[in-house]
């Protein structure tokens, strides 16, 4: 019974994150005369910037060692995972709705969702996830601002 309640709570938090990203996108889309892609890129810029900064802060890049990569999952690590899960779910849906024949992007988002779900199921991989997402997203703000 406890496992079901825990899974239900995790699902609710992930759904809340997805709604946050979708709501942010809709706020930009409704409040401006910009294209759907422009609005999506603003949301992507926000996620990439925050995920990079928070991930680097949680990673402890200055004190990184092989033992620190397996530290116990903290609330901050968990929040970063859920924050990112909601974003990748939103962006996957956006890519499917505004299909641009980009199988690479679809695979990228599905892979990210599977990986985050994997990390959420672990107890001692918070620092590894934080370092991974920070390093993966570090160039994202640059990609979005070039457009």
Instruction: State the end-to-end distance.
Output: 49 Å
- How are helices and strands ordered from N to C? HHHHHH
Strand content: under 5%
Number of strands: 0
> Please, what is the average pLDDT?
83
Structural class: mainly alpha
Tell me about the largest β-sheet.
Answer: none
Radius of gyration: 16 Å
| Count of helical regions | 6
Task: Kindly state the percentage of residues in helix.
Answer: over 70%
Q: Pick out the low-confidence regions.
A: none
Shape: globular
Task: Describe the protein's architecture and organization.
This protein is mainly alpha-helical and 147 residues long. The chain is built from 6 helices and no strands. Helix 1 crosses helix 3 and helix 3 packs across helix 5. It is globular and about 50 Å long. It starts with a helix and ends with a helix.
Compact description:
InterPro entries: TLC-dom, TLCD5. With 147 residues, this protein is mostly helical. Helix content is 77%, strand content 0%.
Task: Give the topology.
Layout: H1 2-31, H2 36-59, H3 75-97, H4 103-120, H5 126-137, H6 140-145
Helix pairs in contact: 1-2, 1-3, 2-3, 2-5, 3-4, 3-5
Keywords: Membrane, Transmembrane, Transmembrane helix
Membrane topology: Multi-pass membrane protein
InterPro entries: TLC-dom (IPR006634), TLCD5 (IPR042512)
């Amino acid at each position: 019974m406890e496992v079901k309640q825990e899974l239900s709570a995790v699902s609710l938090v992930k759904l809340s994150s997805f709604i946050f990203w979708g709501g942010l996108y809709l706020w930009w889309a409704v409040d401006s005369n910009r294209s759907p892609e422009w609005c999506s890129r603003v949301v992507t810029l926000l996620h990439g910037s925050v995920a990079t900064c928070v991930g680097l802060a949680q990673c402890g890049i200055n004190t990184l060692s092989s033992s620190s990569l397996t530290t116990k999952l903290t609330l901050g690590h968990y929040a970063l995972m859920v924050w990112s899960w909601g974003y990748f779910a939103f962006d996957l849906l956006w890519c499917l709705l505004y299909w641009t024949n980009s199988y690479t992007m679809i695979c990228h988002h599905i892979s990210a969702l599977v990986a985050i779900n994997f990390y959420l199921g672990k107890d001692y991989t918070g620092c590894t996830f934080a370092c991974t997402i920070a390093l993966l997203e570090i160039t994202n703000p640059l990609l979005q601002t070039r457009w």
